[in-house]
Amino acid sequence: MDLYEGLPEPVAKAWERGLTSGRAAMSRRRLLRAASLAAAGTTLAACGIPPAAGGKGGEGAEEAPDYSRKEKVLNFANWPLYVDVDEKNKKKHPTLDRFERESGIKVKYVEDINDNNEFYGKIKPQLAAGQSTGRDLICLSDWMAGRLIRQGYVQRLDPANMTHAVTNLEDRFRAAAHDPGRQYSYPWAGTACIVAYNKKATKGKKITSVSQLLEDDALKGRISMLTEMTDTVGLTMLDMGADSEHFTEDQFDAAIARIQKAVDRQQLRRFSGNDYLDELNSGDIAACLAWAGDIVQLQMDNDDIAFAVPDRGYLFGTDDLLVPAEARHQSNAEALIDYYYQPDVAAQLAAWVNYICPVTGAKAEMEKIDKELADDPLVFPDQHMIAKGKNFRPMSAKEEARYEEKFSKLIGA
Amino acid sequence: MTALAPLAGTSETPSAPQGGAGSDDGAGPGAGPGGGGRRRLTPYWLLLPAGLWLAVFFVAPLFYQASTSVQSGSLEEGFRVTWRFSNYSDALAAYGEHFLRSFGYAATATALCLAIGYPLAYMIAFRAGRWRNLVLVMVIAPFFTSFLIRTLAWKTILSDGGPVVGALSSLHVLDLTSRLGLTGDERLLATPLAVVCGLTYNFLPFMILPLYSSLERIDTSLHEAARDLYATPATTFRKVTFPLSLPGVVAGTLLTFIPASGDYINAQLLGSPNEQMVGNAIQKQFLNVLDYPTAAAMSFLLMALILIMVSAYMRKAGTEELV
Q1: What is the mean pLDDT of chain A?
Q2: Could you give the 3-state DSSP secondary structure of residue B223?
Q3: Contact A401 B68 (CB under 8 A)
Q4: Residue among A39, A387, B290, B269 nearest B280 (CA)
Q5: Which pLDDT value is given to residue A393?
Q6: A319: pLDDT confidence band, cut at 50, 70 and 90?
Q7: Residue of B nearest to A201 (CA)
């Protein structure tokens, strides 16, 4: 192997000339130095990051061997506070415990997903290297699920193992743009991004639109938006009369420019992840973009918390269950998905989690548990609410990179 | 990492004769007249653990980072080394403001740490008496909780409705600071002041400890001698104590300035979008934009700029005489 392999052509030629003729050829020391430099060059060039596995789009990972029969375990990674908790023993999860009893599968439930991007950064190296992530089931937002499907990092699910899920998934979740026909993903819960505010902090004033968040002087320095690009920009585009399901690049840019103006005016206190709740609760943040399920929970403790579904629509999405490539226990994972699509289990989960329930028949079950929640449009949306919910359209890899770049400039980094 | 194999392979061969030449000179460390081979090798054995550690966890990642910083491509198509050095200039053009802000905040925090830390270190070294150990423990005590938790605690302490903002506001301190552009609208959080204070708080022990250790070594009889020679306390400090504590000042400022420049937790938690530092930008490039080359180039730029500033500073401070 040539020492100067990997250097651009003219540079390599120069190396060669320099080493074999002229003064440089005389000095052994110089030769040694050149060798180590060239070696460094070779090494640098030998690195590189391979393309994301699929790249072909939606073909899914190759079938990994399934050890489900031999190993009755399931490694399930989820977001914090996203499953029911026993009132007496916070470490117990009634629905998961029942699943373990009924199926004989031991669930290792880990709450290690805090942010879609961070989690992707965490598992991507293993996925790219074709190794197991050590997780059999993960829960990610729809746009990130779309990325993993596009890149071929998830396993295709077998509908034969999930009869409840196939029958009970509500129709409006079936035609998901990022996974048409739900071949790779099943929703754990639906999410609605809406406007929320603290009545005490706004002095009783109602906050009902993104325009108010961005332009009301009374809220200066006391509003927050989300670090999730799809939610923040999507809702702003809706507010500007654009359709988040069919927007153009210009409309996207206009929304970014509008938020940028608010940032420059110091209208925004910050862009937050899941951690806006404390500040909304204390009133440091008077009004913000928020996830509906969080607000339902917060309202139980604090009467000052109110929310508004913007007239022009809210951003609707799902958090999807996926089986990552090279997972060892796919059938166990499918068994769990199927289990949660039984209406009574789904109702029990929704009663605690308070996010939108994607399971047909769960509303009837919820009426037995909690009448009030069964009528809450944030958990079981009515026709009016459903009509106002808009997705963020799926993006190609290039678009996604471009939009994330613009958004990350906006949020100050 | 397989990519390192060619490096190891090529550098081994040429370095073998060099080693031979070294032993002919007899200039190897520890090679006394009667020194056996084993004794001569001892220093190398002692270096081995740290050397291996640094090779695996510092040199190899640095190589990988250097490679990444000149790549181009996208996540889906993969990144390939194309010697795209414009990653550096692009990053500097797009995020120059973040670099400036980082160094500005870090320098301010370092100056504040020195102003707060020096008197305290002086007190511990010369005046604390039997309280000395207790005070030292108090300085170190914050390390028993995580960095993150401590910064989050400041969020609660400085919250808008909290006592600190209330008190400062009624004393009209906030009016003054917002006129200086440090705060705004009757709040402390999400302002430059909060970020700088957070940095100062978090890195203060790194200033105090080296200052203390170099002050503590000063022989107090020098102070007596100065007094005998009719030096006023101020002159004693200026001519005796401070010059002798300079190694501590240099070490403390470096230990504060360097990590503070790269910090992103304080800006993230205590700042608004207008106070984000270069660390935040690198994090976003890496995790959100997935532009690994730009993120790597920015990390290198940060390292290089810090290195330049630090070496200029060291030259000025003349560490050769101090150490």
Answers
A1: 87
A2: helix
A3: no
A4: B269
A5: 92
A6: very high
A7: B161
Domains of chain B plus CATH, in order, are: 95-322 (1.10.3720.10)
Average pLDDT over residues B56-73: 94
Q: What tokens were used for B208?
A: 């105090």
pLDDT digits (tens, 9 = 90+) for B186-231: 788 999 999 999 999 999 999 999 999 999 999 999 999 999 999 9
Token pair of B254, please? 């470096």
Fold classified for A191-316+397-410: D-Maltodextrin-Binding Protein; domain 2 (3.40.190)
Q: Is the pLDDT of residue B15 over 50?
A: no
Taking the C-alpha atoms of residue B243 and residue B222, their distance in angstroms, rounded to an integer, is 12
Q: Give B 60-99 residues with CB within 8 A of chain A.
A: 63-64, 66-68, 70-71, 73-81, 83, 94, 98
Contact list in B for residue A284 (CB cut-off 8 A) is 159-161, 187, 189
Q: Chain B partners of A266 at a C-beta cutoff of 8 Å?
A: 184-185, 272, 274
CATH of segment(s) A73-188+319-361: 3.40.190.10
Do residues B199 and B263 make contact, with C-beta atoms less than 8 angstroms apart?
Answer: yes
Query: Do B68 and B293 contact (CB within 8 A), yes or no?
Result: yes
Angle between helix B292-317 and B60-69 (nearest 10): 120
Q: Do the Cβ atoms of A51 and B64 come within 8 Å?
A: no
Predicted pLDDT of residue B19: 39
Query: Contact A43/B80, CB-based, under 8 Å?
Result: no
Looking at CA atoms only, how far is residue A192 from chain B in angstroms? Answer: 22
pLDDT of residue A162: 95
Q: What is the Cα–Cα distance from A213 to A356, expressed in whole angstroms? A: 25
Interface list for B 22-41 with A (CB within 8 A): none
Q: Say if residue A142's pLDDT is above 60.
A: yes
Under the banding of pLDDT at 50, 70 and 90, the label for residue A34 is: low
CA distances from A155 to A138, A151, A165, A335 (A): 12, 11, 17, 15
- Contact across the interface for A411 and B284, Cβ inside 8 Å: yes
Closest CA to A357 of A193, A191, A195, A194: A191
Query: Which residues in chain A have Cβ-Cβ distances shorter than 8 Å to B76?
Result: 51-52, 55, 150-151, 397
Cβ-in-10-Å burial (0-12, 13-18, 19+) of B143 comes to: exposed
User: Is A339:A155 a contact under the CB 8 Å cutoff?
Assistant: no
**CB B190 to CB A221 under 8 A?**
yes
Contact A187, A314 (CB under 8 A): no
Q: Give me the helix-helix angle, B86-122 and B292-317, nearest 10°.
A: 40
Q: Which chain A residues touch B102 with a CB distance below 8 Å? A: none
Report the distance separating Cα B118 and Cα B142, nearest Å: 18
The answer, yes or no, to whether residue A25 has pLDDT greater than 50, is: no
Asked whether the predicted pLDDT for residue A70 surpasses 50, the reply is yes
Nearest to residue B197, comparing CAs of B284, B312, B115? B115
Q: Is the pLDDT of residue B25 over 60?
A: no
ipTM of the complex: 0.77
**Annotated domain spans of chain A:** 9-46, 73-188+319-361, 191-316+397-410
Distance CA A327, CA A336 (A): 14
**Which of A43, A263, A404 is the closest to B288 by Cβ?**
A404
**Å between B39 CA and nearest CA of chain A:** 29
